[in-house]
Structures are given as C-alpha cells and as structure tokens.
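agent: user wants the structure for Flagellar basal body P-ring biosynthesis protein FlgA from Saltatorellus ferox. delegating to structure tool.
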Amino acid sequence: MMLLTVLSLLTLGGVSVELPASSTSKGMEIHVAEIAKVTGDDPELVARVEAASLGYAPAPGFHRTLRADLVQASLRSVLPGVEIRVTGAPRCRVTPGVQFVKGIDMQGAAAKRLREALAGQDAEATPTGALADLQVPTSSTPPSIVVPMLVGSTFPGIRSVPVEIWLDGKLYRTVNVSFNVSIWQRRAILSRAVSAGEPLHAGLFQIKRVAVDSAQGMFALETSALAGAVALKALPAGVSVSERDVHREVVVHRGDIINVRVIKGHVEVSDIAVAQADGRMGERLAVVIQSTGRELTAVVKGPRAVEVRIQ
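agent: tool returned. relaying tokens verbatim.
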C-alpha cells in the first residue's frame, strides 16, 4: 500500500498558478481560485489547487500582500507530490470586496428579540441612537443577521442586545445594539410618610402605575405581602416598599398543619396541608395536601393559611 501511494504521488502532473499584481478577495478566507489563474493537464489537480486556502482574507479597509515564493511553498506543503509553479507577479496585493449590512436591519432584529423578552410586561424599548451600517466582506450568499435568545431577566435602563453577523455559514462579527428599556408596574405606593417602627396596613397605600427606575425596583412588595409588616426606617410618601424596608414575621413554618383554600375557576375547596417551608405574607411555598398527598405551590395569606390557584 505504501509503495502504491508513493508511485501515485510521483506520477502527479504539474500545475501552474499565475499570480496577478492585485486581486480582490471574498469572504473571510482566501482561496487560490479567487485571486489567481490555475492551469494544468489534470483537471482534478487543477481543482485541488484552486480550492486550496491561502489563509485569512483582509478585513474591509485593509489589504494583504501575498509573495509568490511563499504562496508556492504553502501550496507545496498542503499538496505534497504535486509539482506547483507560481508565475506572474512576485507579489499580489489583495483587497477585500465589500458589502454592507444595514444598521436599521440589525437594530430591527435586536428590537424584535427584546420585545419577545419583555412580552407580558408593561414595557417599551427605544434605541439609544442610530446604528451605522456595517461594512463586511463580500460573500457567496447574503449576510445573515442572527440574534440569540436573551438569557435572564430584563431590567429598566440601558440594555445591550448582541447581534451576530454570519457570512457563508461562519460568524463574522457580533455587534452590540443598545436600547433604553422602560418598565411600568402597578404598585402599592405610600399615600403618606411613615416612621421607623410603624406597623403597615393596606390603608396606607394607593395602587398606581409607576415607572420602575432600577433592577431593585422590580421587587417591590405587593399589599398582600405588607399586612403586619413593620417599617425598619422612615419612609416618605409616594414610594413603594421593598423587602429591605420592612420587617415581616414568618406566619407559616415548615411542618405546620395549615388551612389551604384551593381555587379553580368558580370552584373553591378547603383542605388541610403540611407546609414544606417557612413563609411570610404573600410568599410562595410548597405544601402537601393531606387528603391526596399531592404537592402544590401556595401563596401565604395569613397565619397557618395559604391559597392555591389552579389554572
């Protein structure tokens, strides 16, 4: 087998590569056929040389110079046994062909993905400014704009959305597109100032649609969670209340036998359950229904009292 391989290499014919003084590349990699004229008696060998890679293509705005002697050495190393002659210019100046990906298209794709992430919320996202068109190398197929799924929660403020530009099935560049995200929520807002140590109750609050100004603001407590809470510090009128502002007693303890109200549509059923965790007013915790052994997620409504809503 080894002897046959050697003999086949010795019988390979020659190929001539005529290098021009200048040429234009396409895509992210230079292939011989793009920049040079390849001739030879064996069409299969000619095709192999034409398909050979000469390395990276220059980016838009740059060029790359290919020396004839180095091109010849490179081709002989990747195609051993093939007699390759590089003729023509001693050097070839390669500049990239260019095309443009429109900034408005990248921004539109990013906005669509961001709207998906904000679905179900009272929110809007506006671009922080115009996005310039992106100059990219020419490619065999039109550039593709891909926006990966956004991971994690989206909070108010500046949000950067990564947009991938693909050329001929390869990732060329990632462009970050910025948006100003605004989120509104209906919140329990203090109607008057309260003092440190003052107990809170529903009568102190009004429900209003307010803009959330930070990630921390996303976690304000609802009125159902504030019953029995005590202010840890003085709080002004017109603000929502978060966990760090109040002390809330645990009203359900792990292992407690508790009353559970199960609601499905217009049907309500009362039962007994065992709490699987500690819980404060308004918090969610797992409970096991004694009559069925089924574990459900319930909301704490009071001392030893929870509610389960089944869709």
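agent: one observation worth passing along. The chain has four domains: 14-96, 100-173, 184-247, 250-309.
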